[in-house]
Amino acid sequence: MLNYNQTIKDQKSYQGLQMSEKNPVMKLIIRGKKREFLSAVGKSLNMVLPTKANTSTQSEKLTALWLSPDEWMVFSNIVAKENINSYETETLLNKNISKLNLGAVVDVTDQYVQIILKGDKIYDLFEAGSPFNFNEFRNKIGSVTQTIITKVDVIIHNQNQNEVNLFVRRSFSEYLFSWMNDSASRL
């Protein structure tokens, strides 16, 4: 993480909805197909990667999101110290995955912004700008989807009842947060 600059400086609260950026949080994309890859990741992280589409797994320190049959996002549940450029988890995965040619590990901490949304109006907000049908998604704790909100690609993780992690590319984060802020004020 080089010279981390928080893109969303405000924490917004509306009736039934709170939005804020969680930073800095380690985020890694890991890719691999072999059984040995899954085993090595499991031993390294002390957690099993989700293998069912659009699901997640969680340990005390980490959460893993299924993105495709051979791709996962792993992020820390704990805020990291600012201005740290390497993470113990990344080093461990590079040693046990990349160096053994079992898969790939890419640090995307600076690429994605994590926005935490809380409240009972989250899905009303999402439905105002997304073609995705959230009816089943909202009731499945731990579910994950990649969709579009107001023309911006996002990853949405249903963390808990009325609590969602939204990941958006840094370059679109201010625009998306501005749109969410404007739309939330009309709910």
Key terms:
187 residues, alpha+beta, Gyrase A, domain 2, 4 helices, single chain, 5-stranded antiparallel sheet, 6-stranded antiparallel sheet, 11 strands, globular
Side-by-side strand order of the widest sheet: 1-2-8-11-10-9
Multimerization status: single chain
Secondary structural class: alpha+beta
Number of strands: 11
Question: What is the H/E string?
Answer: EEEHEEEHEEHEEEH
Stretches where pLDDT falls below 50 for ≥5 residues?
Answer: none
Q: Sum up the overall morphology in one term.
A: globular
CATH class: Alpha Beta
Largest beta-sheet characterization: 6 strands, antiparallel
3D architecture notes:
The structure is a single chain. By secondary structure, this protein is an alpha+beta fold. The protein has a single domain, classed as Gyrase A, domain 2 (2-Layer Sandwich), CATH 3.30.1360.120. Helix content is 23%, strand content 34%. It is built from four helices and eleven strands. The strands form two sheets. Strands 1-2-8-11-10-9 form a six-stranded antiparallel β-sheet, covered by helices on one side. It has a five-stranded antiparallel β-sheet with strand order 4-5-6-3-7, covered by helices on one side. The longest helix is centred in the C-terminal third of the chain and has 15 residues, at 170-184.
